[in-house]
Amino acid sequence: MSSKPALLDQSSVSLSFHTSHAKLLLFDWDGTLTPIVKRPADAVPTPATVRILEHLSSQSLTAFWIISGRDQTFLNDHFGSIRSLGLSAEHGAFVRRPHATAWEDISGSVGTAWQSVIMSIFEEFTSKTPGSWTERKNIAITWHYRNATPDQGALHSTECKERLLDQISQSLTHLEVINGKMCLEVRPRSVNKGTIVHRIVQDYEKSHGVATSPDWVLCVGDDLTDEGANSPLNLLYAS
Fold first, then answer.
1. What is the mean pLDDT of each run of 10 residues along the chain (239 residues)?
2. 156-180 burial, b for 16+ CB within 10 Å, e for fewer?
3. Residue tagged active-site, from 9, 28, 77, 151
4. Is-contact 40 30, C-beta < 8 A?
5. Known catalytic membership, residue 28
6. What residues have CB less than 8 Å from 149, skipping those under 6 apart?
7. Distance of alpha carbon 81 from its chain centroid, rounded?
């Protein structure tokens, strides 16, 4: 039986943060900095959250990034005014660097021809799963079932994933299926949080005008889509 991870000691974290030199904070949004809610549109930051993000991201030699599955529009609408905050949309496909105004597409040439095939599968399961819906993003498609009955949502998500994996194995091998929090997402394998985290760490020296990498890193998420963010950190900070 797997055990729950130990809780962070808040006093130790605070002490190490204030005594470190170069800091990097990487946070997911939904389920991490805000609770999971029935309507994703309701998961907006409170004024207090905005003030905290502004304060932390403006600290000297501190980079604070929100790395989310949300699209650029949502992140821009709710966090765009915080110029010192780094934003990553659709799990690393698009970024707005701290103090920048424009978004960068770093997904590469992934194409969208595959989306109609995946949409047809998701639409089939949406039609037979009341309370579920499909979200079409720029380079990914997500099927949400958080508002379906628990038993039906769990059953149909398993069946849907099996269908998706079968289709991908036959003709769409450049895609992958990700289990999120009460959702399934299909996206190109080349797009993931690990890729953008690796790039953020590499770019830290140039963006902060220093000859050092972060010596204090905190990476926090709540589901499997966030696991990839830890992989490059484990390699870079193995010692």
1. 72 92 94 91 94 95 94 96 96 93 85 91 97 93 95 97 96 91 91 89 78 87 84 79
2. bbeebbebbeebbeeebeebbbbeb
3. 28
4. yes
5. yes
6. 130, 131
7. 20
